[in-house]
Amino acid sequence: MTAVVPVLNPRAEPRRAVKRGFPRDAGTVRLCRTLAAVERLLYQRLVDAVVLDVKSAPTAALALPARFPRIPMFVLSALRSDDGPLLAACDAAGFAGVLVEGVDNAVAGEWIAARTAQVARRAALADAPKLLRLTDRLQLAAWEEVLRRVGFPTQTGHVAAALRVTREHLSREFAAGGAPNLKRVIDLARTACAADLLGNPGYTVRSVVHILGYASTSHLAGAARRVAGTTPQELRTVGARGVLQRFIRGRTRSRT
Which H or E element spans position 210? Predict the structure, then answer.
């Protein structure tokens, strides 16, 4: 299950343009007919970005960036020279960028894919391989697979299958050279993602538990405690980068 990008626009061509240009390995574009459908996706799936035609969307659409500041929201509208006040309102509301329908269609999908929440999370964790002492090609490939699977429950066996090696071989090789064991690194990546999502005022802890597929709030609480020595509520202010820093400061090894 990959991250999704909801697109709300009443016209077929701009919708197709985003879907056509969005890299398949970056996520899935979902075409929505109403703002309510966009909001349902925000609470059901890991959403990487939102694309809205603010000229046809309800006024309530302008409130979305404030509720979900960690999820980039983009305007894709047929804008005219007299739309200055609308663009100013979008900027004040916190929209991350503006695309002009009919002018930017050819680059829309690729442009959005380079500016998603996933891209920001990866940037926050960019030096994780160095800090975790991941140097071997298999270690680095496993880290990339863990990041790719961050939105749903993952076990060592899932990563091993994706890399076409045995679970035992991967577990042994991943922890070589002083690196943490893979299970704890999976916990790290998912807890960092949870912290990033909780940076959105629109999400409760229960919402994030549902989106990331944790069995219960206590499962997220256990991961947050093991990885960062914190609670799910405190993850809001810790953020993805903070989770990594706390992990490096002494929680890289299992105490069980």
Answer: helix 205-212
Question: Which single residue is written with the structure tokens 């206590």?
Answer: 218
Q: Are strands 73-77 and 97-100 parallel, antiparallel or unpaired?
A: parallel
The model's pTM: 0.92
Contacts of 191 (CB under 8 A, 6+ apart): 220, 223, 224, 227, 228, 235, 243
86-to-49, 52, 60, 77, 103 alpha-carbon distances in Å = 21, 13, 14, 11, 18
| Spatial contact of 35 and 59, defined as CB atoms under 8 Å apart | no
Cα–Cα distance for residue pair 139/171, rounded to 1 Å: 10
Task: Tell me phi and psi for residue 130, to 5 degrees.
Answer: -65, -45
Which amino acid type is present at position 96?
A
Contact 95, 64 (CB under 8 A): no
Q: Which helix (H) or strand (E) holds 73?
A: strand 73-77
- Tens of pLDDT, residue by residue over 119-147, are 999 999 999 999 999 999 999 999 999 99
Q: What domains sit in the chain, N to C, each tagged with a CATH number?
A: 4-119 (3.40.50.2300), 125-248 (1.10.10.60)
Q: Which residues pair with 32 in a beta bridge?
A: 8
d(CA 250, CA 108): 43
